[in-house]
Structures are given as C-alpha cells and as structure tokens.
Design goal:
Helix content: 10-25%
Number of helices: 10
Largest sheet: 9 strands, mixed
Strand content: 15-25%
Radius of gyration: 22 Å
Length: 530
C-alpha cells in the first residue's frame, strides 16, 4: 500500500469546549506553563510580530476571510496572501482545516486564543494533492513563499513531510540528499530564512525533510501537572536508535546525526476550526508553528532596534543562523532553584523515558551536541527575548555574560571571545554555535531560481568546534573546561558547570574544511558573571 504524503498530527476529532476551559488551555501553550509568549504581547515589550513576514507550506492551505466560504463567518486568522504552489490560490480550492489550525497557532487574532504573533504577515501555500505532486513541487512552493514580501520572509513553517517510500531514489535513506531536504538547506542560505520543520512521529513516519542541516526540527511536549515539560511519547526520536538500530536511515538520520533541535507544546492544543468551533489537536504539526511565530516576535524587536540605531545591533540580527542559535541556546533544560546558577530556566524537561538533560549522552559526550529527543530543550520565548535583546558583541573586546554574534572564521583558525566578568563556580554555561551546510543549485537555465527538473549539489558541511577555555589558554589542547566537537552536526552546543571561579573565554574553531575555506556562523552564549 502506498503511504500518502501526510500531515504530522493525531486525532482530528473536533471537541467543542466551553470558553473558560479553552482560555486555560491556551494560557498553558502561550502562557508561563507553555512558551511564555503572552508576556511579550504586553507592555513594556508590545511585541506582536508587526510587519514581519513568515510563511507556511502544506498540502492544503488555510481559508482566507473574504476569499473562501469555509471561513466566511470567522475572521480570527488574518493572512497576507494564499497560493496554490507558486500561483495565486483559487477561491474555495485547497482549503484545509489542518492548515487553518497550524496558521491559528501563529497568527490568530482571537482574543480568547491568540496566536504567538497575531500581527505577523503570514503567506501560505498549498502544495496540493499527493497524486500529482512530489518533492519538486514542494520545493517550488517553498521557494515561492521565501520570495514573498519582497524576498524578506524570516521563517517558514513545514507542518508536513514526505515518507521515504515516495522518494524516487533507489533505497532512499535519511542521508540529507532527498530533493526536498537539499531544497530546504539551499533556500535557508539563499533566501536567509529559518525553516521550522515538524519532527517525525508515528509508525512509518514522514521523515523527509527532517534530515536537513540548516533548519530547526521541532519535537512536541505534553503537559504534566499543567506544565508543558515532557517529550510526548508519539515523537519518533529514541535513545540508542542511531546507526546500529534497524530504523537508522529510515526513521532516524543515517549517521547518527541528531535531528531534533528544540521542543515546543503540541499536545491537546485548543484552536479554532474554520467554522469558528473549537478543536483540540495534537502533534508536531502544532509544535513547529510555535517556533516559526516566535521568530516573528523576536524579529519585530530586532527591527525596532535597527530603526532606533541601538548600539550592539546590526542587520545580522535578521540572519537565520542567529535565530537558530538564540532559540536553541535559551531553551529550558533544568529548572533553576532561584539562585540563578541554572540561568533562570523555568522548567525541567524530561524525555519519553522520564530522563532529564543531565542524564543524556549530549550532556556526557562532547561529540554529541543535541539530545536525541529534547534537542537543546524546551522553547521559552521570554528567555529567547532575553538572549536576543542582550545584543551582538564582537570578539575584538571583552564580551558581557549574555549575548550573540554573527561572523566568519577561516579554516585552521579560531575566534576567541573573552568574557568580561569572571564566571561563578557551580554556575552553568550555555553556548550554541550554528552554521550551514553548503547546498548549491544546478541552475540549468541560469535564472537564479529552482525550476522543476533541476537538481541540487551537496558540497558538504565544514566542521566547526566549540570550546569553553581558561582565559589564559593559548592553545586548545590546554585549559579546555568544556567542549562540543561533533564531526557530523551543523550545531555545537555546550551546557556545563563552571568548575572554579575565574576568567574564561569561548573559542570557535574551524577544524576541517569540506567546501569553502571561510565559514559564516552564529554564536549565542548565556553565563553567570561572578
């Protein structure tokens, strides 16, 4: 039996709830028990995603008020434009409740259950029926969305995927070389957009393009005691199921490279259906848009900083690598006890086996940057705002205890960031480094755009490493306190305790060249100054 291209969600039975119950449910997804985004909607932050464009690619599309009958009595979800692949959408064609629910997570303007970024400009396209579409049409659709708003779209949501058995390659595996995966990594770089991809789930799964390098894959959390703090059991990401497991290359990346970047709420999320009735939905389909729309909130703040010509701020704040590093570095892992040593984290996230991040191989092994199920932890929008708003700091002068940067490093060289304040013994350090795999378009007609029938060229991933070293250490073989030295991932991540009060620096090292001799990267750090 042919497995159809499908969405990533479970149980679409509509259940009508009373408003008080709904308000509680929404609070727990966007409120302090969820991603803590509602706080940023209010003064003094006043962030709603204004003038920031984000995108949505799916099988179907949300209905647009004034265009589609399905939403004629419901204006909660306001859309900038809707398309069918790379053409304008026909009225009442391709309208889909799943796509509407996903859009609602991002841009709902309903007062009782707002989206993460209610004022963001959402561009949405429907790829169309699986009978006559495949990865080329999906790539075309993604490119079309990336080119909207004058080519300035900051994040694109993928709450759908492709099963391997629809991939035309013989014995196709999750090796990063499916056309759609290559397309996502190419578009990330060429259009400078962060792709938030719904993580794989369920038996059989729909894993393409979760083998991407340049986007961020999102697993979904469920509530315990009202707090979103557990990786839901139906997420398809397991421990010790890497290279040796029979699912390697089928459900998980072939070489053991970790797929999940971050976790966001996705269980029993209450949303409006197109007819205005309430629906409880579950799945990674509804976790990914929490991440996509968070980018809109942060980018509204970033553009505000640019307009005001704030110091320690530049257009680098718009880069997808910076967004990826900021979101991943500020994620919640272990709840702070109130003394700030755990960086003010608000929850302890546990995996399907009820283990926390400190029990993970990612914590123990410097060659493993991400936990297989949790990535770097749970999305926390308020902490992401703190991380981002701390500003861009260059390595030419001592850096504050919190901040980010974007620059380049040459092969066989290192960039050192010396922390201005000594670090406190027993405090934790969180550092994230993100960079791109280089994918190029084999552009047969030289129009600088992907056309159906064209292919991509994978030029590989340069190997960067990340260290926390004593400030007086001249070489990396001396004075290393913690390191993240994966040879296969496009992210390095350090989360470790400081052994003694003292002065430290962060080192970004270009270890091994696969493509170009200069590599652009984003770096985010969060430490506790003594």
């Amino acid at each position: 039996m042919t497995k159809k291209l499908t969405w990533i969600f479970w149980g679409f039975g509509a259940s009508v709830l009373s408003l008080p119950v709904l308000a509680v449910a929404v609070q727990s997804s966007l409120g302090t028990n969820g991603i803590d985004a509602l706080k940023l909607h209010q003064a003094p932050y006043n962030l709603l995603g204004r003038k920031i464009a984000i995108g949505q690619v799916e099988i179907g599309r949300p209905g647009m008020f004034g265009w589609d009958k399905a939403v004629s009595k419901n204006r909660a979800v306001s859309l900038a434009a809707v398309f069918s692949r790379n053409a304008p959408a026909k009225s009442n064609n391709g309208v889909d409740p799943h796509a509407y629910n996903v859009a609602g997570v991002m841009v709902s303007r309903d007062k009782a259950y707002p989206g993460v970024a209610p004022q963001a400009r959402l561009y949405s396209t429907a790829v169309g029926s699986t009978k006559n579409t495949g990865q080329p049409e999906e790539c075309l659709s993604a490119q079309h969305i990336a080119l909207q708003n004058g080519g300035d779209v900051r994040a694109i949501n993928f709450s759908f995927g492709e099963p391997l058995n629809r991939d035309p390659r013989p014995d196709a595996t999750l090796d990063g070389n499916a056309l759609l995966t290559l397309c996502v990594d190419w578009s990330s770089r060429v259009h400078d957009v962060l792709y938030a991809i719904a993580g794989n789930q369920g038996k059989g799964g729909i894993p393409i393009p979760t083998d991407n390098f340049n986007g961020i894959n999102v697993a979904f959390s469920s509530r315990r005691g009202g707090i979103f703090n557990k990786v839901d059991v139906s997420n398809l990401a397991g421990l010790n199921q890497g290279v040796s497991g029979r699912l390697a290359g089928r459900e998980f990346n072939l070489d053991g490279r970790r797929a999940i970047g971050i976790v966001a709420p996705g269980s029993n999320i209450s949303l409006l259906n197109p007819d205005g009735k309430l629906n409880k939905v579950t799945g990674t389909s509804f976790a990914a848009p929490h991440v996509t729309a968070t980018v809109a909130l942060l980018q509204e703040f970033g553009d505000r900083q640019l307009r005001k010509k704030q110091p320690n701020w530049s257009v680098d704040s718009r880069r997808h690598q910076v967004m990826k590093a900021v979101l991943m570095n500020s994620a919640d892992k272990i709840q702070d006890k109130g003394n700030g040593l755990l960086l003010g984290m608000t929850r302890t996230l546990i995996d399907k086996q009820n283990q926390d991040w400190l029990a993970s191989d990612a914590y123990q092994n410097p060659k493993v940057p991400l936990d297989a199920q949790m990535g770097t932890g749970h999305l926390n929008v308020s902490r992401a705002y703190q991380q981002f708003s701390a500003g861009q700091w260059q390595p030419t002068a001592a850096i504050p205890s919190l901040g980010w940067d974007y620059r380049q490093v040459d092969v066989n060289n290192a960039v050192d960031y010396t922390l201005a304040k000594p670090l406190k013994q027993g405090s934790y350090v969180s550092i994230t480094l993100a960079w791109d795999r280089l994918v190029e378009l084999k552009d047969a007609n030289n129009n600088q755009m992907y056309d159906v029938g064209e292919k991509f060229s994978d030029r590989g991933l340069n190997n960067l490493d990340l260290y926390l070293v004593k400030a007086d250490a001249q070489t990396t073989d001396k004075g290393v306190i913690c390191s993240s030295i994966s040879e296969i991932d496009s992210v390095e991540h350090i989360f470790c305790p400081v052994p003694a009060n003292g002065n430290y620096k962060i080192r970004v090292q270009f270890q091994k060249q696969a493509n170009e001799p200069t590599q652009a990267y984003a770096l985010a750090w969060w430490t506790v100054g003594n």
